[in-house]
Amino acid sequence: MPCVDRRRVSSRKQLCRVSPGKQLGTAVTILSAGPLAGWRWAGGWQAIFYVTGSVTLVWSVAWTLLVYETPADHPRISFRERVYIYSLTYQGSGQRSSVPFPWRRALSCRPFQALIVTQFCQNWGDYLIMTELPTYISTALRYPLNTNAMFSALPQLAKVVFALGVSFVADWLARGSRLSLSANRKLWNSIGMYIPALTLVGVSFAGCSDVLVLTLMVTTVGFNGAVLSGYNINHMDLAPNFAGTLMGITNCVATLAGVLAPFQAGYVLNQQPSLANWRTVFLTAAGLLALGNTVFCALGSTSRQPWNEPTPERCLVLDADAEVKRRARQQAVL
Questions:
Q1: Domain range summary for the chain, segments of one domain joined by +
Q2: Which pTM was predicted?
Q3: At what angle do helices 181-204 and 210-224 cross, to 10 degrees?
Q4: I need a surface site. Which of 25, 73, 145, 250 has the fewest CB within 10 A?
Q5: Distance (Å, rounded) from C-alpha 152 to C-alpha 168?
Q6: For 236-286, how does the pLDDT look when each residue is reduced to its tens digit (9 = 90+)?
Q7: In Å, how far are 11, 132, 225 from 258, measured between CA atoms?
Q8: CB neighbours (10 Å) of residue 151?
């Protein structure tokens, strides 16, 4: 992915196209879990954790060796490429990486609060399907392990394909002002949350009709990929200078859904794993998906927030700090 200014539309488009890698990784892991569990010489099911853990360690080493803070720090980049990247990404005052995050103003910002709620509700449905779908296929539909893996991975693959397709359509709509940025975000977010909410309602009443259930599940997860062109890149709309911090905050809160959704499902199903209890689990997720998108459409915004830019007072403080550090370095050298 070329290094582009995160404030530009092209960088948002590329983020939409990179984000489905999560679902692709999930699908590959699910498909490989069955064969790995058959490796008796590696401990059977323990091999799943050995292999995935080893892959993560290899990736971490590669990341440490190949990724650097800025183009200036990179030892293997040409001067011409360094100048080109700086011409794209470091236009302006150059203060944004040093400005402290405006916690009070950000957390009291209504569009950002709406974004937190939306991502929490979306993650509830996402984590529920990711963790409980194999159990549902095994216990309710009575599919064996090898078939279970294939059907559990299929919705994630559908999400990859749909998310990539949506990113191109969303980009086409954004070009030439065919659709406003706000309408574009909310359109795809509505498709990515309202339609899965409806199909989850369908799943909850589909009973043991395996073809219907699997079709609805693939539709649920596939259409959910549209949110990658919706709320998922709204952080860049609100405050591109602090998009990483905003994503960290929303992810921190939304990841709680990854704990609460399986806990709620386990609590309901441990009483009795009946179709009626599965219906309760799926309807809860459907309700939260609908709620999350309603909040986003009503309170969400794509307008650049005023706290995105450093105030003159904050810049003066930063300049003073920089001057103090510069003089301290000079004295240390002397």
A1: 9-67+100-303
A2: 0.78
A3: 160
A4: 73
A5: 26
A6: 999 988 998 999 999 999 999 999 999 999 999 987 778 889 999 999 999
A7: 28, 11, 18
A8: 20
